Amino acid sequence: MNDIITLVAQKMTIDTEGDQVVEESTRNIFCDVASIGMKEFYEAQAVGLKPEIKFKIADNLDYSNEQIVIFNSVRYRVLRTYRTGIALEIICYTEVNAPVYVAPTPEPEPEGGTPTPEPEPEGGTPTPEPEPEGGTE
Question: Sign of torsion, CA 35 39 44 50?
């Protein structure tokens, strides 16, 4: 185990103003860095995934389901883990490729309650009259 990765645990909390904030705590562990095998890479791509790097840690108890790994100042998202005996492989992809979830914010109600839709004009929507064939003479 010659390399060190930083595991990032995230916890959602509420600050003093009532906003949700993500708090991160980090810890370092030793690992070996490996590349993704060709077969695994193409199988993952076939289902829309793009694994980029694999970290092998000697003891699976060193990992506590953290979803972010930092290695050489690059943030990775954990794609999946694979346990082999007591060891654990962590397969990751670059975090910038990760989808970002933004919770929808409800639109404020207009003053005076719920607006009523405007009625459609009688007779429906007028359709333009077709131009005569051959043009105007």
Answer: positive
